Amino acid sequence: MAILTPGRIVPLLALILVWVAVYIAINMGKEGKIKVRRIAGLDAIEEVVGRSVEMGRPVFDIIGMGTFTDSYATQTVAGLSILNYVAGLSARLGAELIAPQAKVDVMPVAIELVRDAYNVEGKLDELNVDEQLPYLSGTQFAWASGIIGMAARRRPAGNIMIGPFWAESMMFAETFDRIGAMQVGGTARTYQIPFFAALCDYCLIGEEIFAAGAYVSGDPAQIGTIAAQDWYKLAAIALSIVGALLSTVGVNIIAELLSR
Amino acid sequence: MDYKRDIPLAITFIVGVIAIGDYYTGIEAVTQTFNVIKNWGIVLQGFALGLGAVNLFRVHGRRLSARKEGTDWYFSGWLLLMLVVFIGLGLVTGEYEQGATYSWLYNAIYLPLGSTMYSSLAFYMAYGAYKVLRARNFDAALLFITAVLVIFGNTPIFPAIYPGFFHMREWIFGPIVSGAYRGVRIGIGIGAVVLGIKTLIGMETGYLGRR
């Protein structure tokens, strides 16, 4: 029996290569050699929380319905990174954060993150977990209607949605838009990106949400990893172009190589 | 050494490496180990569900007894009632998994409510389309024209009058949309891989807090 699964040898090599690239990028980041462009959507998060403070209304942070065990786990982790950041900002600036929860395995982590952020700011006594991180439902439209109802009653000044979303994305974006909340939306679910792009004030498209944690941390080493993402993308573009040109002249070497 | 931070990071790394090993190799021991870990996950989720139910009773029972003005305490009452109904039903009928009575409750209550919510999406989409399809600048005008062409291509009467609408729609969905879609998909895939690696090596600690 082969040690390596057939058809997954090249992907494994690619994984090792990206691992090396991340390592190099981290070191370059530490040396201050990497600069990243500004991402307007992530810069706007502080504005959203600030607006909530000024208006004396809550700010919502919705991380979606993903879990740690499905294929959207990375998006859930990205959403949790932002939740931690938003909780820190809310505690520091004095905004009321509301982060409704949908999944039983993600909820305890979310609670710990928010608690941790409030603790770091020395505002743990201001956090009411039961009211600020309520469990609504694990079922899509029950969860959606719960959030829509809360939004209509509480009329938040801001809404941040980063994570995996399904059909409920449109409902959230439209409801919060109708009540005049400033919105930042981001997902890597390609069918939902247009909904956020249509109705949110700022939209994070696809991969930008994976860079969010590193970006808001401001840590040079983490920012370096965003560069690794870009190097890999450049390699993918180069492979695509070379592969397309070779296939056009009847040489399928790239396609065959990638299928090994 | 910060045990609250380092132990979860070590667990993440070990489990992550085993998961990678399971996917890329055919080593039986690795696959079996990963299956055991996945089973642990299921057991933990079961405990979380049980604790969640207890927590729901605690949180909503308190809200119901307080009945503070401005809070939606009546929903807490409804939630507790339904929890009691479902638990009671399971105990009385012995249908701990899917059964006829549960199915009836689901079909009579949740299904029509869920369908109503889902069908209301049409109106949400119409609102979204109205907001976005206003030719305020060149980009918006381009989007507007594309959307109109796609609507014409999708609505049977227009291709019946002029078949070119259908071909235009196909062309928009093919070279233009597919190309852009694949670009976004590649970016998402790479972003997810890099985030996964960062999580494995302990660089991405968003799920642990930022202490």
3D architecture notes:
The complex is a heterodimer of chains A (260) and B (211). With 260 residues, chain A is an alpha/beta fold. Chain A folds into two domains: 9-33 and 223-258, no CATH class; 40-217, Rossmann fold (3-Layer(aba) Sandwich), CATH 3.40.50. Chain A is built from eleven helices and five strands. Chain A has a five-stranded parallel beta sheet with strand order 2-1-3-4-5, sandwiched between helices. With 211 residues, chain B is an all-alpha fold. Chain B has three domains: 1-66; 72-119, no CATH class; 122-200, no CATH class. Chain B is built from eight helices and no strands. The longest helix of chain B has 39 residues, at 28-66. Chain B is extended. Chain B starts with a helix and ends in an 11-residue tail after the last helix. Chains A and B meet through α1, α3, α4, α6 and α7 of A and α1, α2, α4, α5 and α8 of B.
Separation of the first and last Cα atoms of chain A: 16 Å
Largest sheet of chain B: none
What fold name stands as the CATH topology of the largest domain in chain A? Rossmann fold
Structural class of the secondary structure composition of chain B? Answer: mainly alpha
Strand portion of chain A, in percent? 5-15%
Shape of chain B: extended
| Succession of helices and strands of chain B | HHHHHHHH
Q: What strand line-up does the widest sheet of chain A have?
A: 2-1-3-4-5
Count of DSSP E strands of chain B? 0
Largest sheet of chain A: 5 strands, parallel
Overall strand count of chain A: 5
Number of self-contained structural domains of chain A: 2
Apparent shape of chain A: globular
Radius of gyration of chain A: 21 Å
Helix segment tally of chain A = 11
* Tally of separate domains of chain B: 3
**Beta-strand content estimate of chain B:** under 5%
Share in helix of chain A: 55-70%
Secondary-structure element pattern of chain A, one letter each: HHEHEHHHEHEHEHHH
User: Residue share in helices of chain B?
Assistant: over 70%
Specify the oligomeric state. Answer: heterodimer
